[in-house]
Amino acid sequence: MARQTPTPGHQRLFGRRKGHELTPRRQALIDDMLPAIRPMISEDGVVDLQGPVAGQDRLWLEVGFGGGEHLAWQAAHHPDVTILGAEPFINGVASLLAHAQDQQLSNIRVLDNDVRPLLDALPDGSLERIMVLFPDPWPKARHNRRRIINTLTVERFVALLADGGELRLATDIMDYARWMMTAVWPHPDLVWTARRPGDWQTRPDDWPGTRYETKAGKAGRTPVFLTFKRRDR
Ligand SMILES: C[S@@+](CC[C@H](N)C(=O)[O-])C[C@H]1O[C@@H](n2cnc3c(N)ncnc32)[C@H](O)[C@@H]1O
Question: I need a labelling partner for 200 at 20 to 30 A (CA). Which of 18, 130, 142, 192 fits?
Answer without folding.
Answer: 142
